[in-house]
Amino acid sequence: MVDLKVAFLFALITMTTCDDMAHDLLKTYFGTIEREHPYTDIKVEGYIPEWLSGYFLHQTAGSYGNQSNPKVGEKLTHTFDGVGAVSSFKFNGGHVQYSIRYYVTQLFKIFDYYSRNMDRSKVAWGTTFSPFDQQQFKKWEDFHDYPDDNPNVVFWKIGDKVEAMSEATAGVQFDLDTLQTLGTYQFKDDNFGMPPYMAYLNNPAHEHYGGDGVTIYSAVAMYNMSDVSKINVTRMLYKVVDDTRIPVALFHEAGPFNLSECTPGSSYPDMDDRGGYMHSFCMTENYFVMPTSTYKYDVCSIFNEKLPPEPFFKTKTEYSETSPTRFVVISRSTRNVVGEFSTPDGLFVTHQLNSYEKDGMMYLDMLTYRGDAYGHFYIKNLLKGSKGLRTRVERFVVNTSDWSLTERKELFPKRDHDLVEFSTINYQSHSGKPYKYAYMIGLDPAPNVLIKLNVDTGEANYWGPYDDLIPGEPIFVEKPGSSAEDDGVILANVLDTNTGKGMVVVLDGKSFAELGRAISPELMPFGFHSKFIEKAFDEGTVTLSRHTTCVVFVFLCVAILVFMKR
């Protein structure tokens, strides 16, 4: 029989260990960036391939405030709301440099005005989920001297420019060489070329690139506000060419709504006839497929100007488990809607793996949830664990002759982690084509493994788990001249909770073994997505950091003095 004292002592130790781990996560994973700096040489351990050349960018949450502060509106409580910053590892000939900077936005300038102390600044800006301080919000609501978005989700590469994006229609441009904010990204078109009474909502964070690697595709929800008695919602697929957003296709998503049906304190009565939220979409060789989720927008609260400002996603959407999920298929050649299908169960799609066509069938692979996935990603919930929420790595098989859904299949059924996220592939060579490998992270409750999944067999390779290392989104970089799908490297940012330092790990694409790592000089806390921007630097040159430049300068001065004494 188990000794009750021993059992109690074991439980106490376990609870203490969990509390310590939660404290470490709060202090580091959700910590605050105290110091910004230009590119600086950093320590490399192991081997960094010399052919790897360019910038590995990571969306970084610069601060969530003091998580020990119990007061509402004086800290950010949801992972989506971190103060936006960009960190970058610069690879050049086997050498690595690191830089980090906040995006200079309205939000940041308010935070900076109070010495980057959220106990003082409070949450004085609009958020997606976190409560903010109403009094401080009113004090700063007319402050419009800087970009008004918090572009902390993804990066879009537009020609030779880079735009940091959330899910607004325009993000923030920054300079790759300095990470300095250049302002709101300036498109050449006016309101997408649409009339001024068109309002826009939910521009999916995740874009697709055409076969030329340059043309960008996305799909924004468009609200026709010319007559408030019959507001229609149209989803507009558009492309970006030469800094111009050009409509490609339109399909009716919801409506018409009559705002006169809205009563004080109530939501729009018809849940099924509402526009749905979209975070990502599918693209094959010949089609776009648009999944609208079971997060439904409430037009009554969105367009009611009498309501006090509140966290947008939390108060302007409702999750519906019973609403079917609709998939709309658009031909890339004719730009017309050619079919659609739906699932009887409500599901939410976060990220894509890949989509392709073969032998008259379409295969759509994505991460799906049954449940309020976004509600799970409050900081307090991440510290406690998944509690029943499970990611499905799901394949939808569609017959292209009649657009019927013929099969749904779980691609990764046997695994230790209920939650897997941030799925990526070898996008450069296999987007829209048959493929074999996908990459993602496993969470328990924080991320602790990188995963290489064989989507044909369901077998996986792992880097980790490590109790003290928290990895971010894995990005595949193809080796020049490669022919195999996994011939290249995987890059992932990693936080060491013991040292509080960030790093980038470089894994071999085939074996998934670690080749090397480069360690940053300071904290690199939680963030969302990453992107590798390939760039060839001058052969044989390595950009000198400020410290290295000073050392070289001093050495030259000493050499000159010695020479003069002779």
Would you summarize the structure shown here?
The protein has 566 residues and is an alpha+beta fold. The longest helix has 26 residues, at 4-29.
Task: Give the key terms.
566 residues, 16% helix, 10 helices, 5-stranded antiparallel beta sheet, alpha+beta, 2 domains
Overview of this protein structure:
The chain is of the alpha+beta class. It folds into two domains: about 1-30; about 30-565, no CATH class. Helices cover about 15% and strands about 40% of the residues. Strands 2, 29, 30, 31, 32 and 33 form a six-stranded antiparallel sheet that branches. Strands 1-5-4-3-34 form a five-stranded antiparallel sheet. Strands 10, 11, 12, 13 and 14 form a five-stranded antiparallel sheet that branches. It is globular. The N and C termini lie far apart (about 90 Å). The relative contact order is 0.13. Residues about 5-20 and about 540-565 have low confidence and may be disordered.
Largest β-sheet summary: 6 strands, antiparallel
- How far apart, in Å, are the first and last alpha carbons? 88 Å
**Strand content of the residues, in percent?**
35-45%
Class based on secondary structure composition and strand pairing: alpha+beta
| Average pLDDT rating | 89
Number of strands: 34
Residue runs with pLDDT of under 50 for 5 or more positions: 4-19, 540-563
* Principal-axes shape call: globular
CA-based gyration radius: 25 Å
Q: Helical amount among residues, as a percent range?
A: 10-25%
- The number of helices is 10
Number of domains: 2
